Amino acid sequence: MKGLRLVIMVALIGLVALSLGFARGNRPEREGTAAPEKPVVGAVMVDITNPFFVQVMQGGNTMGEALDVEIIWKSSEGSLEKQLALIESFIEQEVDCIWVDPLDPEAVKPPIRKALAAGIPTVTGANLVEVPGNVSTPFPSYDAFYQLTGMIAAYLGNEGSVVYMSGIPGNWILDQYQAGFEDGMKRFPDIDILSIQPAKMDPALAAQIMESWLTTYPKGSLDAVVFTTDPDMYAAIEAMKNAGRAGEFALFSQNGDLPAVEMIENGENGVKIDLLSHGIRIGAFNLMVAARLAKGEKFPEVLWFQYAPVMTEATWDKIVAAGYRKDVQKGDPFSEDYITPERAKEVIADAASEFSDWQPPK
Amino acid sequence: MAKADRRRRAAGGPFFRLILEQYSILILVIAASAAFALFNPRFLTLENLINLSRQIVPMGLLALGASFVLIGGNLDLSAGVGATVCGAALGVTFVVTKNVALAFLVGIVTGLAIGTVNALFIAKAGFGSVIVTLAVMTILQGGIQLLLAGRIVFLSHPLFAFISRGTVAGIPFTFLVLVAFFLLAWYLLNQTKFGVHLYAAGGNRRIAEVVGIRIQRVHFLTFVISGLLMSVSGIVLVSRLALISPNLSGFPLLLNGVSAAVIGGISVTGGRGNAGGVFLGIIFIGVVSNAINFLNVTPEAQDLFRGLLVVFALIFQQLTIRRRLPAGSASGAGTGGAAGVKEVKGEL
User: Which of A242, A343, B142, B223 has the greatest number of beta carbons closer than 10 A?
Assistant: First the structure.
């Protein structure tokens, strides 16, 4: 047994060394490999395993190549302590800009102030972090879903029954989507919200929730299902197919994933409107801001990242004819009134070109 | 004697106590289902029961694997993520090769490989099961990210559709698979030497070694069985969703599976429990999860609601198990050596 333990220990040491070598190959390092003139952006993400954040990294990398900056990606793995430590580490490494996706917009303020005091510009994505000198690129998530409810109501003729599959309770952005949805729906007293259930961004749970709804609400008693994120919608669609009820309801979601966009384009499964945020766009936008800050440019302290509602022209005509009008609350969440699926696919494929000449609104 | 008599009368008599002790989990399931049906009558419709029977399968298979490991006195924390890795391996193989038979083979072999790795570290090399399986879980989490690179992969094949929604005589196919595995488990635990050795090894390792039981071999097999069951669980999971995603429920699946096993009477210290109890345990957990959606429990209160019900079930089950034990045998873990082995087998 002792001999086996020794063999296992040696094998493990070898595996660890191998994995380190593999991992180092995927991350650009500043010392020794970077051209001295190339600015370096330190990016601290919430995690890098969720498909959304993988898209963010893809978009960031594409924009980084276009703007000739290097990016060091780090994952907080959902831990606030780790996130704060990573920011401090980037300060010590004297990167040219720090881009953070904060787990807690209040808790990150001290290291953000420290970075700014050290002369390192900062970008905080998805959240409003009010520190003088910091550039926030928040999602207008409340407004996005507030506006979406107006579209849903118009699509349903201002009456009907809907259910909402929310995200992770306690996650600020996802909670804002829910708040915007609930407040927006209050404008339409003839639309009933029958149920709100959290799928926690878990497709298996999303399928289970949908199965319960299909059992609870027989044919004709439910008109629309609203999702916080496209992966939940895909799992729910599978549950609908299993029950023989795919296409019975109008589906509305957020993300703008390619499969969802294609469902809208092809009229499949009842998907009507999807708010295009898309990780690739978000990554490209934030990296663009970080890269230009690293090169010495100045920006206003709040730059709202804008969604684009994806729908067919027929859907747009229908909701306009039913009386839909934009009702801006805190800020306009949409870059355009709507975009077609074809245009959405172009945007997803080439996020770098969408933002490379971007200028902040006056 | 008078005190004992008064206690018996207060408990409702020997017959009521017997029912409670032998069927505590079944009583829990029935009581919970009845209570939830009062709030929403559609809870007990055939449609929902069919949904429930499908929903419990991935968790149930993990619970069964966890049971073998727990009875042997160990713990497998890698099972949940392992199931999603097996599902991912199956999915990626299918997408690349378009060969569904090969994909299934890869899924099964992946689970067996994970189980074997755990077995080598724990049973052969003697490392602690908690730390080894925790480390393997972490490695698997990284592995799935490398495998999928954050993508969602859609699966489309008639076999996945059949696994997802196929029925045999109106009963979901996957539920029948679950029942078959439980029957096999019952046989292994109750009718084979392996079962006797497993209970002995988990109940009192020292005595089991003295009487000549090959503890290493027994523990090795439990982790391989766990690996096989995690692969089947993963296959069912991805077939049900027709997709593979890095966000698939690995850890919640494990948590629910182990909870179901413990509620079903499996002792976390080893040497006690049976397949029938675990089956009822998974039904209880499935009923609770299903009911949370049916009762429209607010998102903020769901974890609290689920946790309180599970704690209640554990306390209820533990109180009735304590009554079943002979005097001086607080944990019921076969402290009497060979006599303990017989006693444990007698409970089955």
Answer: B223
pTM for this structure?
A: 0.82
* Own/partner pairs, A266-271, CB within 8 angstroms, 24+ separation: A267/A312, A269/A237, A269/A240, A270/A246, A271/A233
Cβ atoms B36, B291 nearer than 8 A: yes
Using the Cβ of B156 and the Cβ atoms of chain A, whether some distance falls under 8 Å is answered with: no
pLDDT at A17: 65
**What is the C-alpha separation between A98 and B54, in angstroms, rounded?**
47
Question: Would you say residue B339 has pLDDT above 80?
Answer: no
Q: Is the Cβ of B126 closer than 8 Å to some Cβ of chain A?
A: yes
Q: Residue B305 has which token pair?
A: 């609601």
Please check whether residues A211 and A77 belong to one and the same domain. no
Of A54, A234, A235, the CB nearest to B150: A54
Please tell me whether residues A119 and A182 are part of one structural domain: no
Domain coverage including residue A147: 141-276+307-350
What total of structural domains would you count in chain A? 2
Interface check for A197 against chain B (CB to CB < 8 A): the answer is: yes
A116 CA: distance to closest CA in chain B (Å) = 32
Identify whether A10 is part of a domain: no
Least Cα distance to A225 among A166, A165, A267, A266 occurs for A165
Q: Going by C-beta distance under 8 Å and a sequence separation of 6 or more, which residues neighbour residue A143?
A: A180, A328, A329, A330, A331, A332, A333
* Same-domain check for residues A47 and A120: yes
pLDDT digits (tens, 9 = 90+) for B227-248: 999 999 999 999 999 998 877 7
Q: What is the largest CA-CA distance in chain A?
A: 78
**Which residues between 206 and 265 in chain A have a beta carbon less than 8 angstroms from any beta carbon of chain B?**
207-209, 211-216, 231, 234-235, 238, 241-242, 257, 259
CATH of the domain at A226: 3.40.50.2300
Question: How many Å lie between the alpha carbon of B75 and the closest alpha carbon of chain A?
Answer: 20
State how far the Cα of B25 lies from the Cα of B27, in Å rounded to an integer.
5
Question: B153-154 and B243-244: which strand pairing?
Answer: antiparallel
Of B136, B306, B116, which is closest to residue B223 (Cα–Cα)? Answer: B116
**Domain co-membership, A184 together with A147:** yes
Residues A321, A207: one domain? yes
For the cut 90, the answer to whether the pLDDT of residue B76 exceeds it is: yes
Reported confidence tier of residue A43, pLDDT bands at 50, 70, 90:
very high
Measured on CA atoms in the order B55, B59, B64, B70, is the torsion positive or negative?
negative
Give B109: exposed, middle or buried? Use CB within 10 Å, 0-12, 13-18, 19+.
middle
Domain B40-340's class?
mainly alpha
Percent of chain A at pLDDT exceeding 90 = 67
**Residue in B with minimal Cα distance to A52:** B150
Q: Which chain A residues are Cβ-neighbours of B124 within 8 angstroms?
A: 1, 4
Classify residue A62: in a domain, yes or no: yes
What is residue B296's three-state secondary structure?
coil
CA A86 to chain centre: 21
Examine the domain organization and report whether A104 and A174 are in the same domain: no
Query: A268 and A128 in one domain?
Result: no
Query: Which whole number is the average pLDDT over B199-211?
Result: 91
Q: Examine the domain organization and report whether A263 and A242 are in the same domain.
A: yes
User: With an 8 Å Cβ cutoff, is B296 touching chain A?
Assistant: yes
Report the amino acid identity of residue B99. N
Name the domain boundary from A294, A325, A341.
A294
Residues linked to residue A253 through DSSP beta bridges, in sequence order: A274
Q: How far apart are CA B14 and CA B7, in angstroms?
A: 10
* A161 inside domain: yes
Q: Measured between CB atoms, which of B125, B242, B299 is closest to A198? A: B299
- Confirm whether A27 is domain-assigned: no
